[in-house]
Amino acid sequence: MRTPFLLVFWLMATTLNAQHLPAYTLHAKDGSAVTFGDVLAAAREADLIFFGEHHNNPIHHWLQLELVKALADDPLTRLVVGMEMFEADQQILLDEYAAGHISRNSFESEARIWTNYKTDYRPIVEFAKGAGVPVVATNIPRRYASMVYSKGLASLDGLSDEAKAWIAPLPIEVDLTLPGYAEISKAAGGHGGANLPTSQAVKDATMAHFTLRNLLPGSRFLHLNGAYHSDNGEGIIWYVKRQRGDLRILTITAQEGEAPEFTKADFTIVTPAGFTKTH
């Protein structure tokens, strides 16, 4: 009689386990569990929110969309959304699409959208369009980041004034001793030399520049970016604070797996290892 009993017990335990598979959990910096409502309440007290994502994690994009919707519903503070996924020279396309001047097909065919745009970022852009929420292209055009990687930071000096308008004002200060940039070099095994982390720094500086330029009085700015661009108060935030140390900044980051770190941001989203990815 023992074997059937154990089998039934195992089946019951397995069934109960299958019913409790959380897609994500949210945590404060001390590791304590929090709710989306807690994150939203903190976001409503901030001037500038950095939502650091893993680009191919659908849970992160869903939570971004829900946060955009909730913050857009605030009648007292206008929401502006900045996105790493669009480069500064694409702003005219975002504006023309938002105004209804060009079709979605025209916009998406010309805007150099990411491969996972339709599943992960289109819902945010479409909601923003319908709600009248401005979307800001904050990133440096990738061809100029590639220039820095191959030729060094000084190569930007030779660009035209029109091209420089899509980059943070020159000269761009770069501190390669910051842990985040040092880790990039370490992970690459020295490949690319100083130009590799510098090419990342010009992205961060440019995203900070267009974020601050579009953070107008009476507005709240939500910036969507890869987590490594804002973790530990580095990256974009380092550049922001050098210009506007008075801003109330909130950070959200993402972790995967069973041993997450909670100190990289004010709030951390944890998803299971092996969670389904988008491409």
Low-confidence stretches: 5-17
In terms of quaternary structure, the protein is: single chain
**SS strand fraction:** 15-25%
Secondary-structure element series: HEEHEHEHHHEHHHHEHEE
Which helices and strands appear, and what pairs or packs with what?
Blueprint: H1 2-18, E1 25-28, E2 33-34, H2 36-43, E3 48-53, H3 58-72, E4 78-87, H4 91-98, H5 104-110, H6 117-131, E5 135-139, H7 142-151, H8 161-164, H9 179-187, H10 195-213, E6 219-226, H11 236-243, E7 249-256, E8 267-271
Parallel strand pairs: 3-6, 3-7, 4-5, 4-6, 7-8
Antiparallel strand pairs: 1-2, 1-8
Helix pairs in contact: 3-6, 7-10, 9-10, 10-11
Structural notes for this entry:
With 279 residues, this protein is an alpha/beta fold. It has one domain (24-271): Rossmann fold. It has eleven helices and eight strands. The protein has helices at 2-18, 36-43, 58-72, 91-98, 104-110, 117-131, 142-151, 161-164, 179-187, 195-213, 236-243, and strands spanning 25-28, 33-34, 48-53, 78-87, 135-139, 219-226, 249-256, 267-271. It has an eight-stranded mixed sheet with strand order 2-1-8-7-3-6-4-5. Helix 3 runs parallel beside helix 6 (117-131), helix 9 (179-187) crosses helix 10 (195-213) and helix 10 packs across helix 11 (236-243). The termini are far apart. Mean pLDDT is 93; it is low at 5-17.
